[in-house]
């Protein structure tokens, strides 16, 4: 028993050292305090897992810990239970940084009890970027929160407005959180080619900041909610998390596969096959981030947009839509697309979703939901 007590004491000393170090880091990094909190939470989780054979004693059984286990904000009060402990020595750190006391649960929740204390519920819900990346590989609780916290201030972009223009310096990665956008090239005479569609959850290339200038423009096709991740933050994320490095590279490779499929459509597929294939692809991508309902999804873009994406005229697009309706395959009305025969539409388009590389199921249930 004394040996167990000694080992448990060493465990708590190690955890306290980690917390203290990260609190000091948070104090020195202006504007990045919240991200630094996530950094030391990750380190704390690693320590706790390495020491998982030590039973975390309850507050009442640990000597030297007083009953003042409340946070600086009385509304955020932690009530320790048998398997719920307050980190020793963190009360002073909490006063220095203005953060609440960190809690750790030995059996369930872990450091994420702390997250539930400091983050409003709406900030804990996974955004479309997190939902999409979970299809490319496993993300831990820390990965998901860290990624969500890295998104900068949300911006509202009006429809038909350029988000970034060709020739500009891409110092940050734009992430579409709501609405539809596109990448496009435009010739001097005004002719436009849409080279890809950007849906909720899509980053405008996670590594675009490595280039000196944009070789294309990005435009909002509808009102868009946008966030940015600075290039330095992307590098920090990928350096600290192998999971994030993996899924972001996989997302880049999946985008390259989509571009190849678009090239096949322009070079080989007939007009009706092109449109059918685009419908199948966009529906699959929207479904991946939870934006479909049954066989219906929002489809807010115009026939002119479809024409510029498929290398056709708007008149040709209109006729093709009528053909698809007459065949009983789709209905496009009031900016809503319904696939009446998804399998038949896929056969017509020669659509194989394997090129989207959605090989992982999202991690469910989401422990960030309370």
UniProtKB/TrEMBL annotation:
<dbReference type="InterPro" id="IPR036388">
    <property type="entry name" value="WH-like_DNA-bd_sf"/>
</dbReference>
<feature type="region of interest" description="Disordered">
    <location>
        <begin position="58"/>
        <end position="102"/>
    </location>
</feature>
<keyword id="KW-0418">Kinase</keyword>
<dbReference type="Pfam" id="PF00027">
    <property type="entry name" value="cNMP_binding"/>
</dbReference>
<dbReference type="InterPro" id="IPR012318">
    <property type="entry name" value="HTH_CRP"/>
</dbReference>
<protein>
    <submittedName>
        <fullName>cAMP-binding domain of CRP or a regulatory subunit of cAMP-dependent protein kinases</fullName>
    </submittedName>
</protein>
<dbReference type="InterPro" id="IPR036390">
    <property type="entry name" value="WH_DNA-bd_sf"/>
</dbReference>
<dbReference type="GO" id="GO:0003677">
    <property type="term" value="F:DNA binding"/>
</dbReference>
<feature type="domain" description="HTH crp-type">
    <location>
        <begin position="269"/>
        <end position="343"/>
    </location>
</feature>
<dbReference type="GO" id="GO:0006355">
    <property type="term" value="P:regulation of DNA-templated transcription"/>
</dbReference>
<dbReference type="InterPro" id="IPR018490">
    <property type="entry name" value="cNMP-bd_dom_sf"/>
</dbReference>
<dbReference type="Pfam" id="PF13545">
    <property type="entry name" value="HTH_Crp_2"/>
</dbReference>
<keyword id="KW-0238">DNA-binding</keyword>
<keyword id="KW-0808">Transferase</keyword>
<keyword id="KW-0805">Transcription regulation</keyword>
<dbReference type="InterPro" id="IPR000595">
    <property type="entry name" value="cNMP-bd_dom"/>
</dbReference>
<keyword id="KW-0804">Transcription</keyword>
<dbReference type="InterPro" id="IPR014710">
    <property type="entry name" value="RmlC-like_jellyroll"/>
</dbReference>
<dbReference type="GO" id="GO:0016301">
    <property type="term" value="F:kinase activity"/>
</dbReference>
């Amino acid at each position: 028993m004394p040996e167990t007590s000694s080992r448990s004491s060493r465990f708590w000393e190690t955890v306290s050292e980690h917390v203290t170090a990260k609190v000091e880091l948070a104090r020195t990094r202006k504007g990045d305090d919240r991200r630094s909190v996530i950094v030391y939470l990750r380190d704390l989780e690693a320590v706790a897992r390495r020491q998982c054979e030590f039973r975390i004693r309850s507050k009442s059984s640990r000597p030297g810990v007083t009953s003042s286990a409340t946070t600086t904000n009385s509304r955020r009060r932690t009530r320790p239970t048998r398997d719920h402990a307050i980190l020793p020595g963190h009360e002073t750190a909490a006063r220095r940084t203005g953060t609440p006391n960190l809690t750790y649960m030995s059996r369930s929740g872990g450091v994420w009890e702390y997250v539930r204390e400091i983050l409003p519920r709406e900030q804990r819900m996974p955004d479309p970027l997190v939902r999409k990346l979970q299809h490319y590989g496993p993300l831990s609780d820390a990965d998901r929160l860290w990624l969500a916290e890295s998104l900068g201030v949300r911006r509202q972009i009006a429809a038909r407005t350029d988000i970034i223009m060709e020739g500009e310096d891409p110092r940050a990665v734009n992430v579409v959180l709501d609405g539809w956008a596109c990448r496009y090239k435009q010739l001097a005479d005004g002719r436009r080619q849409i080279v890809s569609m950007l849906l909720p959850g899509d980053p405008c290339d996670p590594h675009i900041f490595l280039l000196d200038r944009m070789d294309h423009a990005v435009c909002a096709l509808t009102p868009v909610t946008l966030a940015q991740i600075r290039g330095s933050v992307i590098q920090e994320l990928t350096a600290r998390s192998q999971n994030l490095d993996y899924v972001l590279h996989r997302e880049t490779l999946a985008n390259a596969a989509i571009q190849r499929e678009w090239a096949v459509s322009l070079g080989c597929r007939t007009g009706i096959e092109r449109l059918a294939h685009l419908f199948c692809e966009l529906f699959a991508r929207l479904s991946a981030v939870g934006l479909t309902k049954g066989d219906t999804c929002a489809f807010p873009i115009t026939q002119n947009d479809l024409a510029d994406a498929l290398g056709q005229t708007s008149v040709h697009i209109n006729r093709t839509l009528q053909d698809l309706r007459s065949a009983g395959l789709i209905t496009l009305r009031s900016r809503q697309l319904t696939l009446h025969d998804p399998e038949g539409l896929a056969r017509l388009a020669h659509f194989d979703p394997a090129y989207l590389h959605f090989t992982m199921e999202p991690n469910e249930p989401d422990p960030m939901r309370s």
